[in-house]
Design a protein that fits this description.
Layout lengths: L7 H14 L18 H15 L12 H16 L9 H31 L6 H26 L4 H6 L7 E2 L1 H4 L12 H14 L6 E2 L2 H30 L2
Antiparallel strand pairs: 1-2
Helix pairs in contact: 2-3, 2-5, 3-4, 4-5, 4-9, 5-8, 5-9, 8-9
Length: 246
């Protein structure tokens, strides 16, 4: 007799039965109410993104180079003041504050990427390969952080909703969800998991071990891969061309 007890469909049926019976302590952590995740990882990533923005050449910034980073730090300070240690359930104002912070980082990096690509296509002088490569790497790394923040903020309604178990269906399928026997009982996705997802998507230009399930997740990953591919190809090609020029 074939043992099909480990098939994903049967595990999902068992989880549903556990949830219906009220035995929430047996269900995996990502399906039940848990404590909010520590804030340090997402805070560190945002600070890195702000620092990278300050290192960009002035011609690639949307406005005076200090304006957007200062606004981002102010918004980050408000979020930390409201929830200093953990990402706990927030009211709508704090939710919008967090989204506004990510939008500002996305706007600044998107503008820098668009300006850099336009300059390279139009043949604007980038005659110093190390500077070009460092600028392209700056934008690429910030792009990884930006999309990690979006994945983290939108998957199953965001960190607060995930903590409360409000959404039954996940937008991203992690390995630990498919094979809970290989994960500790208190495992649930946190920001570093989404950062890993963003990094692998930017390097492989496709999903690796985390699969997008919802349409918005697929479209967002496709957009990230496109931005990463265009940036890498144009920057590297231009740098090689400069090095080969007499």
């Amino acid at each position: 007799m074939n043992d099909r007890s480990n098939e994903p469909e049967n595990r999902i049926v068992r989880i549903e039965r556990i949830l219906e019976s009220g035995e929430s302590e047996v269900a995996p952590a990502w399906r039940r109410v848990t404590h909010g995740e520590p804030r340090w990882a997402v805070t560190a990533a945002i600070l890195v993104a702000v620092t990278l923005q300050l290192k960009l050449p002035h011609e690639l910034t949307l406005m005076p180079s200090w304006v957007l980073p200062v606004l981002e730090l102010v918004l980050l300070g408000g979020l930390i003041a409201a929830n200093p240690r953990r990402v706990e359930p927030r009211n709508k104002r704090l939710r919008w504050l967090g989204l506004a912070l990510i939008c500002l980082i996305s706007l600044a990096n998107g503008w820098a990427a668009a300006r850099l690509v336009t300059d390279l296509v139009q043949g604007t002088d980038w005659s110093h390969p190390p500077t070009l490569l460092l600028t392209g790497g700056n934008i690429w790394l910030t792009n990884v952080i930006v999309f990690a923040l979006w994945y983290w903020e939108w998957d199953r309604g965001g960190p607060a909703d995930r903590m409360m178990g409000h959404h039954q269906f996940a937008d991203f399928l992690f390995v630990q969800m498919q094979s809970p026997e290989f994960a500790p009982p208190d495992w649930e996705p946190a920001f570093l998991d989404y950062l890993y997802l963003s990094f692998t998507n930017s390097t492989a230009f496709s999903p690796t071990d985390v699969m997008p399930l919802s349409r918005w997740a697929k479209m967002l990953m496709m957009l990230q891969s496109t931005v990463s591919l265009v940036t890498v190809v144009l920057v590297v090609a231009r740098a090689v061309n400069i090095l080969q020029s007499p």
